C-alpha cells in the first residue's frame, strides 16, 4: 500500500512548473484578482481533477487486470513524452 506521503510528494513534484501552476501564477499576478480567490478556485479545480482521476483509476482497476493497465499507462506516458519531444524539436529547428 502506497503511503500518503509518497502520493503527496509524487503529485507535488509532478505539478511543479506544470501548465496548471503557470496558469495559477498568471491569475494571481493580475492585480484585479483576489489572491485568496485564485487559491480557492485553483484548489477546487485540482481537487476535482484528482477525484475524477481516482474514480477513473478505480474503474479501470475493476475492468482490467494489473498487467494490461500498467501496459496502457506505460504506453500512454511514452506516447505523450514522444509527442512533447517531437513538438519541441520542430519548434527549435
Estimated structural class: mainly alpha
The N- and C-terminal alpha carbons lie at a distance of 45 Å
Strand content: under 5%
| Total count of strands | 0
The biggest beta sheet reads: none
Series of H and E elements = HHHH
Number of domains: 1
Radius of gyration: 17 Å
- By DSSP (H or I, 4+ residues per run), the number of helices equals 4
The mean pLDDT is 90
Folded structure, characterized:
This protein has 93 residues and is mostly helical. It has helices spanning 4-15, 19-29, 35-63, 66-92. The protein has one domain (4-92). Helix 2 (19-29) packs antiparallel against helix 3. The longest helix has 29 residues, at 35-63.
Keywords:
4 helices, mainly alpha, 93 residues
Brief overview:
With 93 residues, the protein is mainly α. It is built from four helices and no strands.
What's the helix and strand layout?
Blueprint: H1 4-15, H2 19-29, H3 35-63, H4 66-92
Amino acid at each position: 500500500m502506497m503511503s500518503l506521503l509518497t502520493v503527496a510528494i509524487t503529485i507535488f513534484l509532478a505539478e511543479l512548473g506544470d501548465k496548471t501552476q503557470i496558469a495559477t501564477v498568471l491569475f494571481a499576478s493580475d492585480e484585479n484578482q483576489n489572491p485568496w480567490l485564485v487559491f480557492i478556485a485553483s484548489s477546487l479545480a485540482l481537487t476535482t481533477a484528482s477525484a475524477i482521476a481516482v474514480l477513473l483509476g478505480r474503474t479501470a482497476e475493476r475492468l482490467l487486470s494489473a498487467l494490461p493497465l500498467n501496459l496502457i499507462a506505460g504506453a500512454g506516458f511514452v506516447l505523450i513524452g514522444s509527442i512533447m519531444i517531437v513538438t519541441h524539436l520542430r519548434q527549435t529547428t
